[in-house]
């Protein structure tokens, strides 16, 4: 039997989390403040969501909009706080002024994660050299996923890059799972699945009534069926 593809859904609170799990999500990305493109949720929000569902939770570590790390000491403090609450999967990604990976910041935060698994998020879509970034991060402990649309503008533009990177799976710097998200639509799935992509990330697509409304279990279920087709 083939391994089921991963469907990850953005959740802001326990209501979102329950609906996403009911619709068939395998994993949640926990964030707050989508007006800033998703920031670190509070320890209390994590605890409420953890108590409400039993699927995997990846918690965003990000203090402000954009891809600069900002206050690294505060990021480390928040990471440790969430670890003490039981968080064991994370999402992060910081770029320096050249657009390359901010290795000191990434290494400092990863050092606080105790080897937990983590995703490098769509900062990869803003770097001038994706291949170099992958190879610079390749040996960091716990890195198992890249969340990417293949391009800053989204999957429509980035599809050729996604397909090319999927074809390199297993090469040095390309061992991590590709988690496709950012302008992802249902009609993108057949080509991505055929290329071997096996992880998909949705946010607005799980909320047909917009970000002011909760996740819709039926919308998630439609994605679950399409991902499994």
UniProtKB/TrEMBL annotation:
Tree of life domain: Bacteria
Protein name, per record: Copper homeostasis protein cutC homolog
Record InterPro entries: CutC-like, CutC-like_dom_sf
One matching Pfam family: CutC
Family as reported in the entry's similarity comment: Belongs to the CutC family.
């Amino acid at each position: 039997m083939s391994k089921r593809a991963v469907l990850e859904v953005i959740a802001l609170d326990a209501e979102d989390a329950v609906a996403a799990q009911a619709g068939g999500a395998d994993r949640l990305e926990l964030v707050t403040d989508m007006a800033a493109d998703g920031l670190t949720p509070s320890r209390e929000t994590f605890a409420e969501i953890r108590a409400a569902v039993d699927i995997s939770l990846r918690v965003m570590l990000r203090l402000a909009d954009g891809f600069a790390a900002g206050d690294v000491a505060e990021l480390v403090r928040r990471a440790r706080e969430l670890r003490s609450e039981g968080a064991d999967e994370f999402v992060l990604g910081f770029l320096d002024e050249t657009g390359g990976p901010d290795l000191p910041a990434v290494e400092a935060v990863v050092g606080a994660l105790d080897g937990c698994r983590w995703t490098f998020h769509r900062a990869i879509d803003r770097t001038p050299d994706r291949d170099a970034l992958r190879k610079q991060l390749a040996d960091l402990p716990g890195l198992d996923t890249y969340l990417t649309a293949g391009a800053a503008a989204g999957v429509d533009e980035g599809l050729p890059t996604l397909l090319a990177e999927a074809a390199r799976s297993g090469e040095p710097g390309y061992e991590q799972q590709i988690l496709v998200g950012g302008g992802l639509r249902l009609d993108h799935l057949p080509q991505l699945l055929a290329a071997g992509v096996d992880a998909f990330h949705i946010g607005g697509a799980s909320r047909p009534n917009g970000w002011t409304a909760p996740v819709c279990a039926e919308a998630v279920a439609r994605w679950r069926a399409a991902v499994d087709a």
